[in-house]
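Following up on my earlier thread - several people asked me to post the actual chain instead of describing it. Fair enough. Here it is, all 332 residues.
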Amino acid sequence: MKYVGKITFCGGTGSVTGANFLFEIDGKRILVDCGLAQGKDIAEDSNWNPFIYNPKEIDILFITHAHIDHIGRIPKLIHEGFRGTIYSTPPTKELSLPMLLDTAGILANNWKVNEKIDIELVYSQENIKTAFVHWSTLLYHEKYKITEDLEVSFKNSGHILGSAMIEFVYKGKKVLFTGDLGNSPSPLLPDAEILTDIDYLIIESVYGDRNHESKENRKKMLQKVIEDNYKRRGALIVPTFSLERSQELLFELNDLVENKHIPMMPIYFDSPLAIKLTDIFKKYKDYFNDKARAVMVHDKYIFDFAGLHTTLMSEDSKLINNSPNPKIIIAG
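Reply from S.P.:
Thanks for posting it. Predicted structure:
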């Protein structure tokens, strides 16, 4: 087989975070993802090491999806001189702005990180703004010519809203970076596309050695826990990721509440970031699966229901303590 290109694994190997791959092909230096390495801390010390490539020499950055372990070092890339174009799907671009701003705020308050790097300088509003000046979008299956012989397109990976596998085609040979895949079946999203003709496959496999419970079992477990909480007049706290998991949970709760499968009680959506991200989800219903869109035919407010209270301000969040039990608190 003839030479196609060179791939350097710059992050996301030997661990499950910090995705960052350098693809050198046809005279171009291309990055796939530029994520934050995370572990017991919000950001590992390795994030502040120099990149193993010169950011000024990178032509294009392709983003698979908006999780921080795939986008979190973009401000650092900008700070160190990257001025190429960033490409993602439209939802990924829109979700990435609040995600990066939130991460910048968290890092600014992390004293350990501040010993290593001037966070306010690297994760500045200006660097984040510059990133989005250079950020363009491609729809799923829209073909974009990078060079005469090199073409790229996005395939749906079914992971979170707007997530994509990135397929490069060079002189008939196909190279695919999957990004994160699944978890299928999702209450909201279609399954990952099935691709059968890839020559080189770079796949991420965080959950490659296990099966998750079915969507139906998850929902039954949720219903039972809520019913038990109501009977004992407790406060059920549900910690959840702000992006995707929160929206899936709201969608499931909407069904349980609207169809009276659970007793009525106050449900507090206590995560400003998740609330902002949910507003973005509402704009991209065309990216939902057929079942979710079918629900929207008779219930267009699939993330809102009787008894739901959103708390954007810290003062509102503190007032939850005064609310009588039973209640449910969804916390970022």
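The first strand starts at residue 6 and ends at 11. That should answer part of your original question.
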